[in-house]
Amino acid sequence: MNAAAPEAPTRVACAHCGDACADEPILLDNQPFCCAGCRAVYELLQTNNLCGYYALNERPGQKVELELPGRFDYLDSDTVQAQLLAFRSDALARLTLTIPQMHCASCIWLLEKLYQLNPGVLESRVNFLRKEISISYHPGRTSLKEVVKLLTAVGYEPQITLAELGAQPHHHNRRLYYQLGLAGFCFGNVMLLAFPDYLSFTEQLQGEFGRFFGYLSLLLSLPVLLYSARGFFQSAWQGVRQRYINLDFPISLGLSALFLTSVFDILTQRGSGYLDSFTGLVFFMLIGKWVQQRTYDALRFDRDFTSYFPVAVTLLTPEGEQSVSVKELKVGQRILVRHQEVIPADAMLMRGTGQIDYSFVSGESVPVAKVAGEVVYAGGRQTGEAVELEVVREVSQGYLTQLWNNPAFQKAGEQTLETYANTVGRYFVAATLLLAAGAVAYWYPRSPQMALRAFTSVLVIACPCALSLATPFALGAAVRTFGRLKFYLKNSGVVETLGRVDTIVFDKTGTLTEVKRSTVEYIGRPLSEAEQQLVAAVVRQSTHPLSQRLTRELGNGEVVKSEVVKDGILENGIKREPLKENSLFTTPQVHNFTDFPGQGVSGVVDGVWVKVGSAAFAGSQCRPPEEANQLQSRVYVALNGQPLGCYVFRNVYRDDLQPLLADLNQRYHLAVLSGDNSAERDRLRALFGPKAELRFHQSPQDKLDYVAALRQQGRRVLMVGDGLNDAGALHQADAGIALTDTLTNFSPACDAILDASSFGRFATFLHFSQDCLQIVLATFVLSFCYNGIGLGLAVQGKFTPIVSAILMPISSLSVMVFSTLLVRYAAYRRFV
Amino acid sequence: MNIIFLIIGISLLVALTFLGAFLWAVRSGQYDDDYTPSVRVLFEDSEASKLPES
Questions:
Q1: Nearest-CA neighbor of A725 among A690, A701, A693?
Q2: Is the pTM of this model over 0.80?
């Protein structure tokens, strides 16, 4: 968003958004602005005395798109409001909106001052990490639509999609805080009460008050057992019910043994029990849970197609246009889809020309031209003029939504890989029970009392608390390291999966290539500078993406003066794509401009008849030499009926792709699944080497099946994709990574989100994940040492409360410190 | 030495007050967002929001 044009370092940055301004920026108060939109925001803030926005952070603004009329009309509908508002009365309405664009202190400042811009807003409060704003407003003085329009006008358009509708308001999970606080309180007090037991000079105290202290400790430990430690018991019980022993099983066993032994000791007045160790353990393990739980609130890893679909659509009825909820759309209804809107349901094109961008849905890199009578599938984004469609299938029955009915999506939350901790936990249980039985067998003939003591001691020391802390702390530190490098993991378990992957499958469009960039190459009789200007003048009039790309390529050095061109409004209020706002071209003038949908454009410039379009349209002889080249996007040029040549558009691969693949190739099986045609086969082959599998024309279902087949072969698959068409494969793979250019954009359900700017580090990320696994194993060894010492004492019956009170905290703390430091060190070695 | 009962009772009472304060803090949402308040506290009051020297 803030990428200044690299070829023009001398250009001034817009005071609002920081983008590079055109040669002659729009000036206001001596501040340069790149476009009318940015200036409008500045004016609005200035008149409301809100320019502190610009003082907190340099150029904090967002580029503001010109608002299309009627875009938010659906917010007036009662059903939509009922679903969005958290609370509503005559004097107060409250709701929470997601604003992905917020990024700095200025954003918080402005968004919390909405009441100065619209008096109807009572209060607005930002949760920055979740990128949410809660707004209270007076429904009598303003409306939801006004509030959303205001947000949009200052550059913070809230994200309102089908997924937000009917979604349950987010409940902050406070349970862990309660558990942690309670455990901490009880731990501290029980420890205090246990002191007299450990110190020789307090023997008299212990003798007099031992009973009282014991009962009090017991009382204080009860809430820890019943509330704080509940999660461990529940998890273990769930595991047992599924005939599966996880790490929480030995933990629960150990905790129960600790508690029961202590109760027995206290009630029979044999001693003071292990209650300080018990509460301390729970406290430490909850800290481990807390460390593990802290993830990225603002990023959502569970999005399906509903997050991509709009909430409402313009319905054309005999009475006129009407905004209806997408969910209420019925077969046979006529809808209007404007420029840059997403088609919500499979529909038949009735009027207008579709230029539908399916890059996100199917992976095709070039928009598809559709003419009246053709069926367009849901999920495509219309570019160009507004089109009229007739719905042929309801939203839930669409081609794209069918993918979500695949069984792969039904089994949610299934653990794909067995974690180390659980595997180790299982052996741990077996070993412990064996040892405990051995201790009983040895002691029983000699002294039944010692046998009981040894048995419980073994169970107590077998509580793998240090073991259970190793994974959360090591992987938690890894997740935070990744986060700093713009690689966001859903949870710490993903690190483990990444470290054990052996096959990597890539999507092509948007993942290996950059959608926004393409190189243009000219083939044919060279064009003079003047001729290029003629072509540029014509293509500038067209909204076709290839035309726009070509316009940028040919440059607009002929900008004569800056002035805002009012965008033409066609009949019945349908707006056309506005022309470039700050440039009015005095020369050359285009006459008789005609847009032939799906073919090309033509016009007369300076007396020269210019035709730009498909080969057939321009009548070109510039034949592609090989079959593969026919699949490339080409635009042919003819002047005065004379075919001259063509522009070839090529995909641009991400900058760091080559070194990255060279690195990955040595250690992983690689594959590419592309929804696009095979035009790029040779270039991909060169990049990926002879071993990689390249597949083209892959439907979303094909991708899913391919990944499933790989997993059947026992491979551990990592899928890297970006669009809805990869959603199935991302879900099916052991780990799915969604690549995104802007984090605020939609990314499909996945295990991790990778910012495209960090794509070059991808191989290092995988290396680092492997390092982390080794660190976890090393920490396991360390905690086994502690358990070994403890067990050694336990089988001899020498495991006393004081040994426990020393050994347990030391082992827990050292494991926490050891694993965190090692991960930090590994990160330092890999990334610095 | 019976004073011990009293002292321990009082100390527990004090500790319980702090626990109560903590639970109240969690309940009132103070732990829901541990970042934004750190930024918010640095904002000037609205009168001072003048344009920076341009």
A1: A701
A2: no
